[in-house]
Predict the 3D structure of the following.
Amino acid sequence: MLTVPELLDRTAVVRSHRLSVAPMLDRTDRHCRYFLRQISRRTLLYTEMIVAQAIQYGDRARLLDYDPQEHPVALQVGGDNPEWLADCARIAEDWGYDEINLNVGCPSDRVQKGQFGACLMARPEQVARCVEAMRSAASIPVTVKHRIGIDDRDSYDELKDFVRVVAESGCDRFSVHARKAWLQGLDPKQNRTIPPLRYDVVYQLKQDFPQLVIEINGGILDLNQATQHLQQVDAVMIGRAIYDNPYLLAEADAQIYGDCGAVRSHSEVVIAMLPYIEQQLSQGVRLHSITRHMLQLFHGCPGSRAWKRVLTEQGCKAGAGPDVLLAALTQVSELGS
């Protein structure tokens, strides 16, 4: 049982994360997160979703290792077994993660077959049991990412009941994708675009649960939109817009957190990556595994296409090293330079 000071400290931690980069399959791996951290010091970063069984029985070092510079960093897990998820929470804490997040939003067929992800929205009591088990196993914050509904079960009353039941188990941060999910008929990509966005529903959750940290996700394209949402909710999660234009994060520390420290230029971000790249190459990582996340760094800048071409064509070659980035850097000009 957490003491009152510990509870207050945990609440302060989850409230401090006003902006996050969404967990994205095949995108937010450790190399992507290290790269994004060179742009923003404060934004909360998430792993890809990792299935609980994989953490229990798989190669944990490959799945869970990260660079200390990535903090604050959260582990997202998928599953519906409280015992397994409790083990994941213990492991996440031992590994030094700042938060563990339960995925209740993924609509993929594979996830549905495992009876977790978005289909868990129909089982709030089971989600509550999972959260309770995870909280009992570790002292780091346990949070939930979910949709506003599934299929025809998309009434506000049902959503409100889901949040109430899960909150009673001890979860105090909910990251809400402001679309419902169709479990049949739409694939995961379609589920990110076809169901209409309903930001008003997420705003209403915050009004009905003022004591909870409510984070909004879905269709948010830039920091100006994020700032507008922060007038209604506690936090904003942005996904593909940042992956497609990572330098959006350059002003995040100042605009979202009031942290007016020095902002790295695009080129300075590249230079900051070079020691990390050399270290990873010495451990057998191929350059392309890192630079594939950097292709959009110069989005909108003169020479961006040439930057991407050099990284794509040269970065995949055997023995490719940091010199590829330096060659690509000669192809671009930064906006305003």
